[in-house]
Structure formats: C-alpha cells, structure tokens
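Subject: sequence -> structure tokens, single chain

Hey, anyone have a minute? Need the predicted structure for the following. Not urgent.
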Amino acid sequence: MLSQSSLQEIKMAADKPENLVFLTEDAFLNFFIQKDQVSFKKSRNFFSKLVGGEVKAFTTTGVILDVAEELEKEGWKKEEIIINLNLILSTPNLKINFKQTIFEAIEIYENNSISFKSAYDLAVMKRMKSSLYFPENSDFKKINNLKVWSDE
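Reply:
Had a minute. Here:
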C-alpha cells in the first residue's frame, strides 16, 4: 500500500497539464476489438493505471465518434456499442469534452435506427434548438419534426 505522501506526490504529478495523456481512438479500439494481443495488453495496462489514478487522460468528442463508427463497421450490436460508450464516459480520471452531449447522443442512438454520428449531430441540433438540416440526410429523414432547409 502506498503511503499518504506517495499518494499525494502521484496526485500532484498527475494534475500537471504536461502529465495529461491524450487518448486517440486506437487506445479504445485496441482494448475493445483485441485484434492484436500486444496492443490490447498495452491498452489494458494503461486503462488499469488510469482507473487506479496513476495517470490522468483526456480525449475529444471526435475520438468518441471515431470509436463508435469503427465499432459499427466491425458489426457490433448497438447494445454493445452503447455499453462500451458508457464505459468510456464513466472511466475515472478521463476528461472528455462535451460529455453531456455524448450522453444525449447515446439516448438518441438507443431509440432510433441511425448511426452514432447522426445521433451526436442530432443531440447538438437539439441543444441549438434547431430542426433544420442541409443537405438531405438519410438518418435525419427517420426523425420526426426535422426538415431539410430550403430557400424555396
């Protein structure tokens, strides 16, 4: 067990901006898809340290969108994707920009037959109080109360 002073040193070091680790989509995909055991073990080790507070990390909405898109391409079931997106969002010591919007996108995704990217776009539209989109979009056509913008 670490002493109190060791724990304090780890916390102080982890809070320094230069010690924040940016996570790309490969960090998550190596962990979820496990095509390569070496990469999987490295990701598993990193996430173990992240959850344990030994490191702190951050990622972006774009990375989350890329992860969801890749899992969809891999043929994952929507339920599995949702579980894993929620797992990412609840990971301790991981900062994500626009996290609440991603949660809203998950809810839209869960309740509609659309891609996660479209669900995220719809969550942003909802936040912006917009019901217009341009140009036509096959996923958006499936959502009631949305219209294609036209100047006609």
